[in-house]
Write a structure and sequence with these properties.
about 650 residues; six-stranded antiparallel beta sheet; 33 strands
């Protein structure tokens, strides 16, 4: 159901609203750049909109001079001619006109008690020989298509689903629900309707499916709280059907009360209250689960997000009370191209928030006089400049479908600024929020894998993935790697790695290796030593060996960092190999003596390493070490033949003969 402004707005007030904010980044709402254009309403043209199919139907001269159908979906723009004037009541105005889901049947309502159904050929031409008429005694408030050949009629005495069968030329009732009704509202997104009884004090939600009407527990409002259809908006917020009612409490500004349909068998629950702080004419859209409330008098729009925490609740019901995320601002001014003889064309400023605006869910704005249909778009980048609380901003962006890139950009800006030191507590809180969500996804994946391995017979419930997930790879590739020289980088990295640990997430090898490469290549040795000192990286033998490979070409201090890491990992075998390769044979022997199996050390290996140093004193010390070992184990200093130490025995004897020792 559309919501329209029904009072004019003064032009000077409009101009003032449009001039609010001169820079484009100040506008967090804008209209889609390419509106759907159609003939505006006039003396000979009536315009209708089907929110279920998002089709605009412009009827010229009752259809005799053309009916133009334009939709937001590809391939649904077509034109045909058909005189829709009734022969019984030629002056009757069309009340509603809608195509079936497959565009093969056109339903037209011209009177309170009848609806005509006209068959259409595949080429979008009416087959006037196939026409069915529904005539009843009840007043028809409206209708919606629930299937290709099933239509639900809402009357003052209930709801009836009709099967349209042109082959048998019958309209068959397949399901009905008796209920006194004075108006209804319909949500095409989730196929649920709201039926009003007793002057809007009793609201009954129903679910419509082919040949099925499911009646849900009703919502009973107070006698003085009855509402009209124009004040009710049906939507889906975070996957839950919602009833949004605009009301004005006594002696207070307007507010929007949100009732959520949390589950089958449960009555709609008063869950949230949106404080508008204004009076006058309002209309609502829902964009990416953000409730947008447009205010005509101030030509501005307010944003609300029911997922954001709030410390204020209604005492009697526990409903959470929300204020606008940021102060209200106007929609960005729109330049509309107009026909012109010149090749370059001309543009005109569109008047926004006018009395000709009609709003449909979830995010449709129609200017019936101008002949334009837009989609309202939320500009997250603009909100980044307006929401100064960065933690609150990230909480908001985590719920947006396009929020990931914006969050990463915000983090990058926060870390690269010279004031990043003062932002460290905020950055840490953001890390914890991101990694808590990251951990929940990892746990869900683990549970799914365990369920598959257990071969459980019951169906596995796949959890709904979060809209925004930022993992270690994202943080490195998009944030850390691009600002490695930023001030306080060491502390920032430590905060992130500690946040991973606090949430039970191990820093993966790829992240540790990538950070190590960047820090070494940028000669950030102090930062690297800082991270290693607190074991923030995912230390492993592979990472230590990689660090060692860099030490020969970068800086000798890297070598000691790698050896310290290996020592923490008790990787003594690797340390021995490193010491021998570097000619530190005496240090290697000291370490080897402390290891199990010290009596079985391969003499040739150590003698060869000592020989390569070219230092006779080192060779003598190593040779003497193994001679003493042989005496201790075998009572003889000589080497056995299988030890293959003959050449080093000769070398030692030559050193003695030449008095080199």
């Amino acid at each position: 159901m559309g919501v329209c402004y029904d009072s004019a707005i003064r032009s000077e007030r409009m101009i003032r609203g449009l001039n609010m904010g001169t820079e484009l980044q100040h506008y967090y709402l804008e209209l889609s750049p390419d509106p759907i254009r159609f003939d505006g309403t006039g003396l000979l043209t009536n315009v209708f909109f089907d929110d279920a199919k998002q089709q605009v139907i412009a009827v010229r001269s009752g259809g005799a001079t053309g009916i133009v159908v334009k939709g937001a979906r590809d391939g649904e723009n077509f034109v045909f001619c058909m005189d829709l004037h009734s022969t019984d009541t030629p002056d009757a105005q069309i009340r509603s006109i809608k195509f079936s889901i497959d565009n093969q049947v056109l339903a037209v309502q011209r009177s309170e008690t009848s609806v005509e159904f006209i068959s259409f050929l595949p080429n979008h031409r009416p087959n006037l020989q196939e026409m069915l008429m529904y005539k009843g005694k009840s007043i028809i408030n409206g209708f919606v298509w629930v299937q290709e050949r099933q239509v639900a009629l809402f009357t003052n005495v209930g709801v009836e689903i009709l099967m349209v069968n042109f082959e048998k030329r019958v309209l068959k009732s397949v399901k009905s629900l008796s209920i006194t009704m004075n108006w209804f509202s319909y949500c095409p997104v989730s196929k649920f309707a709201l039926l009003s009884s007793n002057l809007g004090t009793i609201l009954t939600p129903i679910i419509l499916k082919p040949a099925t009407i499911t009646k849900l527990p009703r919502l009973e409002l107070g006698i003085d709280q009855g509402c009209m259809g124009k004040d009710v908006t049906l939507a889906q917020l975070y996957g839950t059907n919602a009833i949004l009612i605009l009301r004005q409490p006594p002696n207070r500004p307007f507010e929007v009360v949100i009732y959520l349909l949390n589950g089958p068998g449960l009555a709609p629950k008063k869950s949230h209250i949106l404080k508008l702080g204004q009076s006058g004419r309002f209309a609502m859209n829902v964009v990416d689960d953000v409730v947008i409330v447009h205010h005509q008098a101030t030509a501005s729009s307010m944003l609300f997000d029911i997922a954001l925490s709030s410390s204020e609740t209604e005492h009697s019901t526990g409903a959470v009370i929300h204020s606008p995320i940021i102060p209200a601002k106007p929609i960005r001014p729109f330049q509309l191209e107009v026909p012109s003889i010149s090749l370059d064309g001309k543009t005109m400023n569109c008047e926004l928030y006018t009395k000709d605006w009609v709003l449909f869910q979830p995010n449709i704005v129609i200017d019936s006089k101008l002949g334009c249909l837009w989609f309202v778009q939320l500009k997250l980048s603009a909100l980044c400049a307006l929401i100064t609380d960065r933690l609150r901003l990230v909480e908001f962006l985590l719920q947006r479908s396009e929020g990931k890139a914006v969050i990463l950009s915000v983090l990058k800006d926060m870390m690269s600024t010279t004031y990043s030191g003062t932002m460290l507590p905020v950055i840490e809180s953001i890390f914890h929020k991101l990694n808590a969500l990251y951990k929940s996804v990892l746990d869900s994946e683990l549970q799914s894998q365990m369920a598959l391995m257990s071969l459980a017979k019951s169906p596995i419930k796949v959890p709904t993935p979060p809209r925004v997930l930022i993992d270690q790879t994202d943080m490195y590739s998009i944030v850390f790697s691009t600002i490695i020289d930023a001030p306080q980088m060491g502390k920032i990295l430590l905060l992130y790695l500690n946040s991973l640990a606090r949430n039970g997430i191990n820093a993966n090898h790829e992240l540790s290796k990538a950070l190590l490469i960047d820090l070494v290549s940028h000669k950030q040795f102090d930062t690297l030593q800082f991270l290693l000192k607190y074991s923030a990286l995912n230390e492993s033998k592979a990472l230590a060996c990689f660090l060692l490979s860099l030490s020969n070409v970068v800086h000798p201090v890297i070598s000691q960092m790698a050896l310290d890491m290996l020592a923490r990992l008790n990787a003594n075998e690797i340390i021995l190999e490193v010491l021998l390769e570097r000619g530190q044979v005496i240090d290697a022997l000291r370490l080897a003596k402390q290891m199990p199996g010290a009596d079985s050390l391969p003499a040739r290996k150590y003698l060869e390493a000592a020989f390569k140093t070219g230092d006779p004193l080192i060779f003598h010390s190593v040779y003497n070490f193994f001679q003493m070992k042989n005496v201790r184990l075998r009572g003889c200093p000589d080497f056995l033949k299988h030890e293959q130490c003959g050449e080093y025995v000769q070398y030692y004897q030559s050193l003695i003969a030449n008095q080199c020792l």
